[in-house]
Design goal:
CATH architecture: 3-Layer(aba) Sandwich
Shape: globular
Pfam families: FGase
Number of helices: 6
Low-confidence stretches: none
Protein name: N-formylglutamate amidohydrolase
CATH superfamily: Zn-dependent exopeptidases
Strand content: 15-25%
Distance between the termini: 42 Å
CATH class: Alpha Beta
Largest sheet: 7 strands, mixed
Order of helices and strands: EEHHEEEHEEEEHEHEH
Helix content: 25-40%
Strand order of the largest sheet: 1-3-2-6-11-9-10
């Protein structure tokens, strides 16, 4: 059986608020759990196709909220990370995962070179090109914010961190957000936790932001904190305050215009 939300779509990327005029762009690489019918169910049970191994649940609504609040274009994936992880380079072993956490992915095992190349050309390349096309519309490097969510329990271990501010070699925005998270004592906020650059998770930042000196951060939000619309709205409001204050400290101009 095809996975949840399966259809015949093969589009890899959607740009929301394409004409956003703020100095920020938002990216959501793991926005979707869609697996087109031709891939079947990859040999997985339905509950796994709706779990964190297939997508970052809650991440897209938060990304859309930030896009609206910051008047920023949003680049979002249309297909499940199980087919191709758009936050990985094609050569990465986990770009087309044959296992995720403790689960084997039978439909991704023993792929031949042509099958792997097809995933790259139909998923990775359009997403990369769509993202770069949005970046090229800015007169100067935009602030890049990528939005992810993570599971509270991973490999049987409970994670107490609630919001991770992930950065690679450019720590400016992550550290400025930490400094401006005046109410973060109500949340457990950490730098490079539960993931960091050593885990290969900063591919989008490394590929699109760092080479042009764009201020950037990757947000990791524990998915039990953004399960419904009310929680997502509250998270967007909190993150927007941190982002606006941090960008102001970093001299981002023109000033961010926050819509409420």
């Amino acid at each position: 059986m095809p996975g949840p939300d399966s259809d015949q779509r093969e589009t890899a990327v959607t740009v929301h608020n394409r004409d956003g005029r703020g100095p920020v762009m938002v990216v959501c690489e793991h926005a979707s759990r869609v697996i087109p019918a031709r891939y079947g169910d990859l040999g997985l049970r339905p509950e796994l196709l709706d779990s964190h191994i297939a997508w970052d649940s809650g991440a897209l609504p938060v990304a859309q909220g930030l896009s609206s609040a910051l008047d920023a274009p949003l680049v979002a994936s249309d297909l499940s990370r199980l087919l191709f992880d758009c936050n990985r380079p094609p050569e990465a072993p986990d770009a087309i995962p044959d296992h995720s956490e403790i689960h084997d992915i039978p439909g991704n095992q023993n792929l031949n070179a042509a099958e792997r190349a097809n995933r790259v050309t139909t998923i990775h390349d359009p997403f990369r090109d769509g993202l770069q096309g949005v970046m090229n519309r800015f007169a100067s490097p935009p602030v890049m914010i990528t939005v992810h969510s993570f599971t509270p329990v991973y490999r049987g271990q409970t994670r107490d961190v609630e919001i991770g501010l992930i950065c690679d070699s450019d720590e400016r925005l992550a550290r400025a957000m930490m400094s401006n998270a005046a109410d973060h004592t109500a949340r457990i906020v950490r730098l490079n936790d539960p993931y960091g650059p050593q885990d290969g998770v900063t591919h989008t930042l490394r590929t699109h932001a760092l080479p042009i000196g764009a201020i950037n951060v990757m947000l990791e939000i524990r998915n039990d904190l953004i399960r419904d619309a009310a929680a997502q709205t509250a998270m967007v409001a909190m993150l927007t305050r941190w982002i606006v204050a941090a960008c102001a400290d970093l001299g981002v101009a023109p000033p961010l215009k926050v819509s409420t």
